[in-house]
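The data are quoted verbatim here:
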Amino acid sequence: TDVVLFEQGQLSGGTTWHAAGLVGQLRSHSNMTSLIKYSTQLYGELEAETGLATGWKNCGSLSVARTADRMTVLKRTAASARAQGVDIDVISPKEAADLWPVMATDDLVGAVWLPGDGKANPTDLTQSLAKG
């Protein structure tokens, strides 16, 4: 299928260039989660395919809970993610600190870790997608 991106001026010269570039797989609808999960796989291969940099870094993401209620939500999120084939781990505050040593964890109840999440350079990624 074809995708059309509308930008003002040159490709990635409009709103694309100032996007954060964060790529988190979990979405409120399963079809969007599937799309982003596919995208994370594609972004990891696109640079080799096109010869253009994407800025893709598979750095993972961490969501933390400071209350028992928030931890319940994160556990439900983890169950939903697993049902959709997304790699996710429910972890302790100590494990969160091991992943992100500069973070204060003394007030945390727990966290979830999504190792497949990442970030990309929006301008570079757009150029690479256009070429691929």
The longest strand covers residues 61-65. Strands lie at 22-23, 61-65, 89-91, 110-114, 118-119.
